[in-house]
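User: Can you recover a sequence for this backbone? Please restate the input before giving your answer.

Assistant: Of course. Working from this structure:
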C-alpha cells in the first residue's frame, strides 16, 4: 500500500489503522468537491474505478442505473494493488483512457500537484480543467443523479426529499455496521474485536431482513441510494466475506427477504455488468501474511443469481 505526500508517492502498510484492542478503522477520503448541472456535458467528466472495490462499485451501480455509460466514461485499474497502489495493466485490458498513465497515483498528482492522502477509487476527474473532483463514493452517488439528469438515459431521483430522513438513517447504519463491518471482522487482530464486528454485521443484516418483509426496497417501492450502499456488500458476501472474512453465521442465500432483494437488484438494467464474482473471489483470497499466507484460492460456491 502507499499514499501521496505533497504529490510524491511513498509506500506504507495499509489503508486503515489498527487500535490497541485490535480494531480496524478505515482512513477517510479527502477530495469532496461537487458538480453543477450546467457544467456537465458528455465526456467532460471521467470516472476511475476498480471492479473489486465495493466503494467504487457504488458509483458504477449509480452510473448503470441512470444509463450514463455513453456520457460518463470510465477507466478501470487492475483488480490487484501493487507497491504503486492501484495500477493499470494494458495487456489485460486495464487502460487509463485519458492519459495512458501507468498508476493511479500519477493521475492524482497530475490533477493536484501537492495532493496528500490515500490514492483510492472511485475518483472523478474534470477533463476540461484537469481538476480532481471527488474520491468519496457517498458524495458521488449523491451528486451524479441531479448533475447528470439532463444526460441520463434513465433519470431518477435516488434521494427524494420526502425519504431523506429514512435514507440517511439507513446509510449511516449500512456504512458503519455492514460495509465497514465486514472489513472490521476480516481485519480484526483480537478475538474480542472480531466477535464484536461479526455480531454487529449480523445484527444489521437481521435488521435489514426485517425491513424488507413487505416492501421491495429499504424505503418502500422505489430504489434509493440506501439500496445502492447495501448491494455491493451483498454481492461479495457469499463468495468472499463469508469465508475470507470469517462472517460465517449465515449466507445471504439463507435470508428469505435479503436474497430476493439482492437478485432483484442484480436483474436491473446494466447491473449484472458491474458484478464480477470471480474477481471478488480471487481478490479477497489473494496471498496475505495474516489472512491467507499460502494464497490458496478456493473454488467458487454454486450461486444462482437469476430470478
Amino acid at each position: 500500500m502507499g499514499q501521496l505526500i505533497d504529490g510524491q508517492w511513498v509506500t506504507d502498510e495499509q489503508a486503515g489503522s489498527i487500535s490497541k484492542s485490535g480494531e480496524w478503522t478505515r482512513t477517510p477520503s479527502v477530495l469532496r468537491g461537487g458538480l453543477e448541472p450546467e457544467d456537465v456535458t458528455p465526456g467532460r467528466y471521467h470516472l476511475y474505478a476498480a471492479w473489486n472495490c465495493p466503494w467504487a462499485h457504488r458509483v458504477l451501480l449509480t452510473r448503470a442505473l441512470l444509463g450514463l455509460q455513453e456520457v460518463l466514461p470510465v477507466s478501470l485499474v487492475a483488480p490487484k494493488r501493487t507497491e504503486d497502489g492501484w495500477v493499470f495493466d494494458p495487456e489485460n485490458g486495464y487502460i487509463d483512457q485519458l492519459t495512458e498513465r501507468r498508476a493511479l497515483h500519477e493521475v492524482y498528482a497530475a490533477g493536484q500537484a501537492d495532493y496528500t492522502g490515500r490514492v483510492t477509487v472511485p475518483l472523478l476527474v474534470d477533463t476540461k480543467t484537469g481538476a480532481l473532483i471527488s474520491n468519496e463514493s457517498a458524495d458521488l452517488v449523491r451528486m451524479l443523479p441531479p448533475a447528470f439528469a439532463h444526460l441520463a438515459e434513465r433519470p431518477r431521483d435516488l434521494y427524494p426529499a420526502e425519504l431523506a430522513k429514512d435514507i440517511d438513517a439507513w446509510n449511516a447504519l449500512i456504512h458503519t455496521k455492514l460495509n465497514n463491518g465486514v472489513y472490521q471482522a476480516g481485519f480484526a487482530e483480537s478475538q474480542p474485536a472480531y466477535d464484536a464486528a461479526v455480531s454487529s454485521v449480523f445484527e444489521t443484516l437481521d435488521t435489514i431482513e426485517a425491513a424488507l418483509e413487505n416492501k421491495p426496497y429499504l424505503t418502500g417501492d422505489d430504489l434509493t441510494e440506501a439500496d445502492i450502499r447495501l448491494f455491493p456488500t451483498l454481492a461479495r458476501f457469499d463468495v468472499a466475506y463469508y469465508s475470507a472474512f470469517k462472517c460465517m453465521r449465515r449466507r445471504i442465500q439463507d435470508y428469505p427477504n435479503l436474497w430476493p432483494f439482492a437478485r432483484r437488484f442484480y436483474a436491473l438494467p446494466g447491473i449484472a455488468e458491474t458484478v464480477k464474482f470471480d474477481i471478488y473471489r480471487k481478490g479477497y483470497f489473494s496471498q496475505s501474511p495474516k489472512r491467507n499466507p499460502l494464497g490458496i484460492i478456493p473454488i467458487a460456491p454454486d450461486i444462482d443469481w437469476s430470478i
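That completes the design. The beta strands are 2-5, 8-11, 16-18, 24-26, 45-49, 74-76, 117-118, 123-126, 132-134.
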